[in-house]
Write a structure and sequence with these properties.
single chain, alpha/beta, Glutaconate Coenzyme A-transferase, 2 domains, seven-stranded parallel β-sheet, six-stranded mixed β-sheet, globular
Length: about 425
């Protein structure tokens, strides 16, 4: 049977596709912009009709489509919501016990799916099928490809607006059970404009990045500021969890070309692309884009294979021993670790590599110090003190590797806002660090 005949035979409506789901099933759906809105809506409608119960739904980086459907509070009695990375869409649910966080390294999620989960249904948005019968998982393939092959039923939502992204990202029509079509605009995620402190941090970190380096940046004001400050660099490569609009600018300026990478030379490697329509158009069918699953891209050994690997992450809190909290706030899960520790360890083990944690020294308009004597009991430790290397605020940078508890405490205090340094010094003395 030809690929187009297979496509027609498997094409159906969202509600018919969802009829394959039964009570007690475990469902995984695409993360970030690969959330399938038509299928999620049909699933929520069916649960509201009383046809389904005891569902377990897993996601990562949930966005507004999930928030409006499977994360709706009125469905909590029938849907147990689990997430590998918490966002604004489900943050309030975690605070009151309506959703649950799954702690893990992101590079291990595909293995968890293969060895520890029984996935009934996987559903995700894909790019349109080509004449050879291949879809791509589009701009997101963190765990998507693994879940698609580990589940019992695979349902895809074809969207002509989803870019066709190359790499280890192909899905053949023969692997698909059901198809729906829904050509809606993709969610656009625009990075915030950097503030003055972000710009200062960005300049500091840009000076720490040599020509020929391979970089990993996240999303936010600080990563955006770093990108703005790299315009004078040459032969930069990308091996990152996230590909962003700022990276498009660097490629078009000729700063990024990947020519000095040890792995995937002249290719830009990532697992998730988040940005605006311009970015989606840029990565569409672009032969330099090379998306791979998290089990590969975020594997610390793979990360370390690129020389001069510079990984920049952001954190919420740092204590005087060097422990970092990047995910917990006000007693509940605020985000997740994603590939943070993977890149911390991988970049440090890279020849010439650096692991950098960046953060503004204060929060809440300068009233709260992000540097604290000791993380509160119950706060998640995202990066153990043994793993930290460079820490950067608007007041400078310090390298904590190899430093004693005394020297690292003094170095960390030097990064704090001056208004908080005296009390941190007193706390360090009380903790017998000084």
């Amino acid at each position: 049977m030809g690929v187009y005949n297979q496509y027609k035979r498997k094409l159906t409506t969202p509600h018919n596709a969802i009829s394959r789901i039964g009570s007690g099933d475990t469902i995984v759906h695409g993360s970030s912009i690969s959330e399938p809105p038509a299928l999620l809506t049909a699933l929520a409608d069916r649960v509201r009709q009383g046809d389904l119960s005891r569902l377990k739904v897993y996601s990562s980086l949930p966005m507004q489509h999930a928030a409006r459907t499977v994360l709706s509070p009125d469905l909590s009695d029938c849907i147990e919501s689990n997430s590998w990375f918490v966002t604004e869409a489900d943050r309030s649910r975690h605070k009151i016990g309506l959703s649950y966080y799954v702690p893990t390294h992101i590079h291990q999620i595909p293995r968890l799916m293969q060895e520890h989960m029984d996935i009934s249904v996987m559903m995700t948005t894909v790019s349109p099928m080509d004449k050879h019968g291949y879809f791509t998982f589009g701009a997101v393939n963190d765990y998507t490809g693994t879940a698609a092959r580990a589940c019992r039923t695979l349902i895809v939502e074809v969207n002509e607006n989803m870019p066709r992204v190359l790499g280890d990202n192909l899905l053949h029509i023969s692997e698909v059970d059901l198809i729906v079509e829904n050509h809606v605009p993709l969610l656009e995620i625009k990075p915030p404009e950097p503030g003055p402190a972000d710009e200062t941090i960005g300049r500091c970190i840009a000076e720490m990045i040599p020509d020929n380096a391979t970089i990993a940046l996240g999303i936010g004001g600080i990563p955006n500021a770093i990108g703005h400050c790299l315009s004078g660099h040459r032969d930069i490569g990308i091996h990152s969890g996230v590909f962003t609009s700022t990276m498009v600018d660097l490629i078009e300026e000729g700063v990024v070309n990947g020519s000095k990478k040890n792995l995937h030379t002249r290719k830009h490697v990532f697992i998730v692309a988040q940005g605006d329509r311009r970015m989606y158009d840029f990565i569409h069918d672009n032969p330099s884009m090379d998306i791979h699953p998290a089990s590969y891209t975020e594997n610390p050994d793979v990360i370390a294979s690129n020389d001069n690997m510079i990984a920049v992450n952001t954190i919420l809190e740092l204590d005087l021993t060097g422990q970092c909290n990047a995910e917990h706030m006000a007693g509940s899960q605020f985000s997740g670790t994603g590939g943070q520790l993977d890149f911390v360890r991988g970049s440090y083990n890279s020849r010439g590599g650096k692991s950098i944690q960046a953060f503004t020294s204060t929060a809440r308009k300068g009233t709260v110090s992000r540097i604290v004597p000791l993380l509160k009991s119950g706060t998640a430790v995202s990066i153990p003190r043994m793993d930290v290397q460079y820490m950067v605020t608007e007041f400078g940078s310090v390298n904590l590797k190899g430093k004693s508890t005394r020297d690292r405490a003094l170095g960390i205090i030097s990064l704090a806002h001056p208004d908080f340094r005296d009390r941190l010094l007193r706390a360090a003395e009380d903790m017998y660090l000084l």
